[in-house]
Give the backbone structure.
Amino acid sequence: MEKPSIFEFHGFASSPSHLEGIQAEEGTGNECKAGETRERAETDAVLEGMSAVERLRWAFERFGDQVVVSSSFGIQAAVLLHLATRLRPEIPVILVDTGYLFPETYRYADLLTERLGLRLHVAQAPLSPAWFEARHGRLWEDGLEGLNRYNELRKIEPMRRALEELRARCWLAGPRRTQAKARAELPVLQWQGGLAKVHPIVDWSDTQVEAYLDQWSIPRHPLAAQGYVSVGDVPTSRPWEEGMLPEETRFFGWKRECGLHQHHPHPSPREAS
């Protein structure tokens, strides 16, 4: 069975609505799907041997002006933003603002937006944090199930709407294999229905990231100096301490992913019903 996208897994539409026609054109026959799967695997193998810049150029040539890049404006997020905007200054940059980001992250987003001339697209849930908590409570305090529900409502659904509004066919994102065990096998290219998700720096090490920031004199996130190796929302992020794995600094150590960068191997609830 084909792996569901993040949107299918979390109970939303199988993909943003503007991609439905593209998926229909791809055909439904087994032979067509088998050929498509082979072609996509071959493309990923080619991309694996490319540099980050070459992967970006491939995405821009393949998908034209329907390419977007997402950013958390986290500790090492500036690298992909700089790489992408050097090649395409006008690329839309999606920031999912949960309403619970650190003040330092908002200021860092302002700094990089001005410094790099970013075309920022802020995606937010319809409810303010106060209204959200009045209706749902502090979901991140309700165990793993509550945390997953929080991520669905404050992160995944806003991202789905942003991709739809921007009519994206290719989503550039910055996860790297060395960041967590859950990312160790992450490919350069993932397909989520008709949406191509490309990870240009997936094989970069921390050393490469830091060297790139130094080379281009790119400012660091302010919280890096306070021991943070990964930054998301205030309630679910904490500084690294000796003996911890980097992924344990997020989500109370229960998990590493918020859901945006997962490609689930099991069917969505809708498929299983």
The mean pLDDT is 83. The chain has ten helices and six strands.
